[in-house]
Task: structure prediction
Amino acid sequence: MAQINDNFIKIPATYLFSEIAKRVAQHKEANPDAPIIRMGIGDVSLPLPDASVDAMIKAAEEQRHAKTFRGYGPEQGYAFLRDAIVANDFAAKGLDIEADEIFVSDGAKSDTGNIGDIFSVNNRVAITDPSYPVYVDTNAMGGRAGEPNEQNVWSNLVYLPCNMANNFVPQLPDEKIDLIYLCYPNNPTGTTLTHAQLKVWVDYAKANNSIILFDAAYEAFITEENVPRSIYEVEGAREVALEFRSFSKTAGFTGTRCGYTVVPKTVMAFSENGEKVALNKLWNRRHSTKFNGTSYVVQRAAEATFSPEGKKQVKALIEFYTENARIIREGLEKAGYTIYGGKNAPYVWAKAPEGMGSWEYFDYLLKEKNIVTTPGAGFGLSGEGFVRFSAFGSREATIEALKRLEK
Ligand SMILES: *Cc1c(COP(=O)(O)O)cnc(C)c1O
Result:
């Protein structure tokens, strides 16, 4: 009798985006001419940088000819890309990361989800609340989350609330944890941690032999000086942190697919009999067993984001969304909303009017303003009472949305 992994049936159906789609469809049916603006999406809207498209065309042409054709490449990524990542994302900022500590992949969703493979089911896992749903669901699949209650709160996960009371800075837990997921700049709140606030976590991890899983998918949006772009800017992080990066939000690769994970050779965890084991070795084993490398063509596209033209084009993309975020932030503030984020991130986290829940506020914005947002409650209990505005839309739609909201 074939048996399933029962952990999968404990996970509630992903209800957030299907529920949003359902409510938008109902509203449209009742109001066929409603000028709906979508500010809920977590996907980019601008096309790829020309440098990346040109690189893909060139690479595709290479694949046409026997002389330049490439079959399987290194599972960890081609040297040309790993070296470019080290030079531009780390060495250029004075950070000591080596090419064999970089593992190129098809994106940060896969990596943040798959990383659980190398960790014991016995680890105590902490996540910030609200959070990117992948961390919760993949730990549930791996058997580390326990059982969910009616509110989708899992019995074995440690939730670190991020709310107005703590100004969206997660506080150290009062119990010992082994793995901690941190995502900064944060999805969904758009908030950040300063150097000193992140160091608190690195120090905790060092003192408790814990590992930090740091999701830096939005690092390119950081504009403020005291906000670290990489966790390796924090002293000691090379001993306790893995970092996940993605070309998705940075360079518009959401449909092209490329990301990477940094696993410093100095990060150690323990075997059941107490032996120290380097995570770099384990992740290399996992990655090369279950993954056969990111497409050559796509790796050339990613490499091109580091060329002089590529850098200029990526900068223009980020500046475009950053300006949208400013329009949203300042517009909402002017209209009297209480908001967070949007300064170093493409998301603005807006407080619903007193006494209104996330879904009620979502419905109000949909029905009265024809604006689609994402209800914060979909990201965890602490997201209740908020909605997320995304800056990934067009300039025209962003300006029009704010006109409606300021009224
Ligand atoms: C979008 C996003 C990612 C990136 O996912 P990809 O698989 O690289 O497209 C990772 N983490 C968070 C929090 C995100 O919002």
The chain has a mean pLDDT of 97. The chain is about 40% helix and 15% strand. The radius of gyration is 21 Å.
